[in-house]
Write a structure and sequence with these properties.
There is one protein chain. This protein has 182 residues and is of the alpha+beta class. Helix content is 25%, strand content 37%. The chain contains 4 helices and 10 strands; from the N terminus they run ββαββαββαββββα. It is globular and about 45 Å long. The N terminus is likely disordered.
Length: 182
């Protein structure tokens, strides 16, 4: 598992602006709009945790900020909490429910800060259940948000764009990481 201490790390927004952790924490909306906006869920991607690494496990962690708002509540979390492979799996499932309007799409994250499930109902309704926390030891927050099928295509396009911006590196069975040692 990659290190979680990124307080002093500097990351780059895709337009080239230098962004510090304190800027992410305080004014994300002023930096850029979220790459994914799905009902009350907003997700920003600021780069890779280890952009210089090319192996599958360490090279694909994304530096993100996630915010969920609903009826006066707001919960945020940030850091390297989403692996590119998790977004790729979510993209496949989201494409299927967008096409068929049946089933579920699950953004299952290995890190405990975020979990998102979209479930399609028989009449085109979509229920989004989000579990989010900035501190998984002391807090848990779950939001259930009603959407409809019109939200699926923009969300799918947004996830696909992130995967284009941050394509997966390596393969899960890569054991040769010697070239990644700095």
């Amino acid at each position: 598992m990659p290190g979680r201490d990124w307080i002093s790390a500097r990351i780059r927004y895709k337009m080239g602006n230098t962004v510090t952790n304190s800027m992410i924490e305080s004014s994300t909306d002023e930096i850029a709009p979220p790459q994914i906006k799905l009902g009350g869920l907003s997700l920003w991607v600021f780069g890779r945790q280890f952009p210089h690494l090319s192996d599958y496990w360490d090279g694909n962690w994304l530096m993100v900020k996630v915010r969920v708002t609903d009826f006066g509540a707001m919960v945020e979390t940030s850091g390297p909490i989403i692996h590119g492979s998790e977004l790729a799996s979510f993209e496949r499932e989201l494409a299927e429910i967008e096409r068929t309007l049946v089933g579920k799409a699950h953004l299952y994250c290995m890190e405990p800060e975020l979990d998102v499930v979209l479930a399609c109902g028989s009449l085109g309704q979509v229920e989004m259940v989000i579990s989010i926390t900035p501190n998984h030891i002391r807090q848990s927050h779950t939001f259930t948000i009603a959407l409809d099928q019109t939200y699926l295509k923009p969300a799918l396009n947004a996830v696909r764009q992130i995967l284009l911006d941050y394509p997966l590196k390596g393969a899960p069975d890569d054991t040769d990481t010697e070239s990644d040692i700095v």
